[in-house]
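step=encode ok
step=design start
structure_in=
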């Protein structure tokens, strides 16, 4: 694993269930995510994209193969060690935002910091600072129900960045947004999440945002079918 590699998957498989009901979600994934890049995972629903990013983020265990993140083999990290590693190094933007409805926007952003041992006052103060950075400085006391979909998405992004993770993973960050808001969210992600010491992995069906990617990996039926550096290359047949 080179010093420029953020995530390295080799022969990663993931099966759900057993016997006749077994589903093979990942079928031998080989993939490298580089530091400093925005990699998009695309492909039809059910092809394994969300399963793959969940393995990369240490949320799911793979069935076989190896996945190393920042030089750590996730199969060797168990229990509290993995939770600590994930809490320190991984930020996850969920498709449904997963904001806590009883907490203000600033408190939602502060949650990862408090889980990492930061005191509540300092964590909420950092939450307000991050919300200002994503254009929500005037909504820090708002509850999720008082925010639009685009505003909730920006809160979720700020929360994912709160603990300064080196790996940021997003599941369909623009799926519920109109074109202009989706473009703003992607511009924000590129600005705050793509740095030489960070990597951003995005699962998406939204062809409108493909141009933001440094590389695009197309999946189908649990495999990486091809990796391209331009959306135009997706229009050519797979050789």
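sequence_out=
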């Amino acid at each position: 694993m080179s010093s420029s590699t953020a995530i390295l998957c080799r022969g990663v498989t993931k099966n759900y269930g057993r016997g006749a009901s077994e589903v093979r979600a990942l079928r031998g994934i080989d993939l490298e995510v580089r530091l400093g890049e925005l990699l998009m995972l695309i492909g039809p629903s059910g092809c394994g994209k969300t399963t793959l990013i969940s393995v990369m983020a240490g949320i799911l265990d793979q069935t076989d193969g190896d996945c190393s993140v920042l030089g750590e083999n996730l199969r060797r990290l168990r229990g509290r060690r993995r939770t600590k590693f994930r809490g320190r190094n991984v930020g996850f933007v969920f498709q449904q935002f997963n904001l806590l409805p009883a907490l203000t926007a600033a408190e939602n952003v502060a949650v990862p910091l408090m889980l990492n041992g930061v005191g509540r006052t300092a964590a909420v103060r950092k939450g307000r600072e991050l919300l200002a950075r994503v254009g929500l400085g005037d909504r820090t006391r708002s509850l999720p129900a008082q925010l639009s979909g685009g505003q909730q998405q920006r809160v979720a992004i700020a929360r994912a960045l709160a603990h300064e993770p080196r790996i940021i993973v997003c599941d369909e960050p623009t799926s519920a947004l109109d074109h202009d808001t989706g473009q703003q969210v992607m511009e924000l992600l590129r600005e705050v999440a793509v740095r030489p010491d960070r990597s951003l992995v995005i699962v998406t069906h939204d062809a409108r945002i493909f141009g933001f990617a440094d590389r695009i990996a197309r999946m189908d039926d649990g495999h990486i079918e091809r990796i391209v550096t331009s959306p135009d290359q997706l229009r050519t047949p797979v050789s």
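step=design ok
step=annotate ok -> Residues 179-193 form the longest helix (15 residues).
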